[in-house]
Predict the 3D structure of the following.
Amino acid sequence: LARQQSDNLDAAVVLIKASHKAVVLAHINPDGDTLGSALGLALGLRQLGKEAEVFCADTLPENLAFLPAYGEIRTQGPLPPDVDLVVLVDASDISRFGTLSQGSEGFCARAACLNVDHHTTNGRFAAVNLVDPTAAATGEQIFALLGALGVDIDPAIATCLLTAVVTDTRGFRTASTTPRTLAIAAQLHAKGAPLADIVQSVYYNRPFTTLRLWGLALERLRCRDGVAWTEITLAMQAQVGATPSEGDGVIDLMASLRQVTAVALFRETPEGIKVSLRSTDGFDVSAVAARFGGGGHPRAAGCFIPGGLAAAEDKVLQYLAERAAAP
Ligand code: AMP
Ligand code: MN
Ligand code: MN
């Protein structure tokens, strides 16, 4: 595996060195890892004299507005026609890029296509795939890639990549955090990334409506046979005046429960139900998410189920109970 990864790193370096005009795509429902990784890579590519733009076909989280070059992120396609490199970061399948992935067969065939990702469920959809499930964040992988490219990690790039690492490890608290994660974070901090400011912006910067929404969600928390779940409906969001992404932290509060096998959050959207899953010990929620067309990591996964709230809850909770009962 290590050999293959270094081969792929070499192949990725060759692809990038041959390119002149790149786009870096971040996944929908964007988080600090996908945006920090995409911006850090784009800034690195620009340092090498290449044109590079970041695209993300979704609403951007306001609390990440401190990220360097955040204001330049394009939230709508189409991708420029003369692009010769497409890099897709922090997602295991092409549908995670939303409307940007329409016609993706086209852009992956036309331009060199590179995927940098750390999800176990990665489908290796690009020409070159840098996939490392032992990385706590895609930001770790971008750090290695920029190193291989000879990019100087300046304070702006360091800020992007440290944000990626801090957010995907929930502030270095996840089991995915390794000595390598901490070593990279230490180097990024030394290169000028303001760790305390990043933590402040991400975790201590919440609108009043966010905590009121969390309160409504926690009020509905239920637990049965080691599985705890709750929901956020459109009506609950409207009641407190919260936007959809303000429900993002609820699943982490739920994951702090003791003596549960798994936790599930069901969020209503006009198109269907967004499901977030977390587990504490051995239970693999990425397999549960995959069963419903989603994916993720063993301890953090998600999927999207068209239709109504009750049907999605029934299906997922029943499947969770079956898997949890299996030896
Ligand atoms: P979330 O619960 O949205 O924070 O997502 C947890 C993990 O599952 C993240 O690593 C996501 O990349 C992954 N994930 C969430 N939703 C989906 C989906 N619809 N398809 C594939 N992976 C997903
Ligand atoms: Mn992500
Ligand atoms: Mn990630």
Residues 33, 90, 118, 137-138, 168 surround manganese (II) ion (ligand 3) (CB under 6 Å). The CA atoms of residues 65 and 71 lie 8 Å apart. The mean pLDDT is 94. DSSP finds twelve helices and eleven strands in the chain.
